Amino acid sequence: MPASLPASVDYLVIGAGVHGLSTARSLAERGEEVLVIDKSSIAAGASGIACGVVRNNYYQPAMAELMAACVEMWEAEAEALNYHSSGYIALGPESQRGDLEEVFERQQRIGYDSELHTGEADVMAHMKTLYPDWRAPGLTVCLHEHVGGFAFNKESMHGLADLGRAAGASIIEGVEVTGFVRDGSGAVTSVQTSSGEIAIGKEVVVAVGPWIAGMWEMLELPDRLDVRQPDGSLTEDLPMWTYWYLQEGELDLPPETLDTAAGKPSPVLHVDSDAPLHADDGTLITDEPWGVYFKPDRTSVQGGAAPIQLGTEFEVDPYPTGTVNDDFGQMWSSSLSHCMERFEGTSSKFINTRSGGVGAFTVDNFPVFDRMAPNVFIAADSNHGYKMLAVGREIASVLVGEHSTLLAPFSYQRFEAGDLHPVSNSPYPWS
Question: pTM for this structure?
Fold first, then answer.
């Protein structure tokens, strides 16, 4: 049974994932009274089965600046958050070169530690210094971030919860929100839950990941909207939310299989390629552009690719246990073999594990971090969430009356104003 709810609280945070827990911690560190509730448990949703990658490879300037702050926080509290600062490497063919060069230039301007290699020979040489058996052809750009890496997701979320409790935040699991009571201005005066009603002294923060559409509806916010494009034209009647499922899995191989030539844990690797992909027996898997990422995990090598679009409506209760297309295991293991000889013949080691999860993407696929009612702040991360550790700190600063330059570009008003984020030139949808 969940613990008893208090009759009232100044700040109520709904959702015990990365945004809810980090917001609560930051508010508590400022001396504020804050309670986190979750209808299930800490890290029960998307934050608990995320791939755990932490990186700053973003084409959009606002995303890059926010992610730099997030990586800095992961690096500063690595031990408490089960974080491993191994770095991140993005590789691509000529079609990715311009984008990655721009990303690198922005990273250099903000002092982000990275290096760029261009030209197939230079890229191959750099990768062979790390992995002598590297063999992926046709890659002409490599962005190597020396910070970033990966975290063990459930452990990191429980570590974040412990930091919040130590600062004075309360967390109650097993409490589901069933409604909002609002006054004439639209402000929430109390929140109805499965364990009773709780009065709100100051603010409500909604940070529920892929469950956002349900909360959005409870708050009577529009499920469709018109979007002003940067050129002034209007795109009408677009769905606010679209659901995607990220395919991921593991190879039943020791994580040290991916170690570098220096015997160190591997950086996270992301490869986009336009080279034909073959299975180890020579069978053609695809001659279309493809992309994968992979990293060491607790006891295996983990990674994923190929998000599946699920549509504008999706039932997230019960939360999906995770599955992939029938041919994904061979595609993913073959892509690793395409890159490194050490993975040749490992397709039989593929494990379809509970990972990836469902994401609720906004109309432009970027987050909305904004106050959507007089005292309701929404963190809708558009599936960028797990790595965005600094968002909660920034939300807390906004709630106490400060301005966040990092969150300002992610206001809901951008859709009406046409102040949209620039779109990458990449042919790969995940870019």
Answer: 0.94
